[in-house]
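Continuing the batch. This is chain 6 of the set; chains 1 through 5 are on the previous pages. Same settings as before, nothing changed between runs. Recording input and output for traceability.
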Amino acid sequence: MSRSWYFTSKELEHNSPSRRDDITVVKESKLRSLYCSHIQNVGQNLRLPHLTIATAIMLCHRFYARQSHAKNCWHTVASACVLLASKVQDTPRSLKDVVYVVYGREIEDRIAEMTKKYKIKNPHDVRECDKVTKTREELLKREKRELIMAAERLVLKTIGFDLDVELPYKALAAALKRFTSDEAPGLAEVAWSLVEEWLKTSLCLQYKPRYIAVGSVVVAARVLKLKLPAGEKWLEELGILPEVLDEVVRWMQSKICKQKTKETIRVVSFYEIISCRPLDSKA
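Output for chain 6:
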């Protein structure tokens, strides 16, 4: 992934395009959550592989790192990102299918509403009504197809046609190989769950995927009160700088909520975690 896709927290929180249009950090975070959920739902309905859905989310993150939410409807952009990601990951879905999944209910409701207003007095009126509604339905579908195609072109232009998307899953698998299921019961499941959560945040626009993967393993180990490998050699083998990992781990701990961990954990340094000192929790 190009260096141009990594930003500082200051750039994302204070100087983003949305911020210049008076959209707050909190509001943008909510919009980010909405488009991630939308992409996940559409992807699942299209039976897209998990990697394709994750790629669509990353493409949407990239778009809004350079474009404002105030000027670009997240629903349309996110839908276009699903279509684009399906091509990037060689799991193509037709534009027709995407339109059906995204706008099918809306089109059906609009046609039903129009039909109710149509006054039917004889059999000829029934045929005429069917003809009109069918024509209107085709026009609506064409309108939505053109909308998504235009959004797809804008996404491509905005990201400079850079479709090289690196995801954290390979790095996560490599990190988990350092543990056996007997040594670390439940570690893989919790770490995977954390990676999924961070993918929906701005963290993946601040740090390389391997840091998100290893950071998730470290935080998962802390939550489960498991020991990490001694020393820093295993980090070197994974291409991880401890000082950068420390930043990531602190950020992750600060974001973990009560519902996820069943307790509020004290934010500590990565160095404290790896030293295997007692890690007390505070409710």
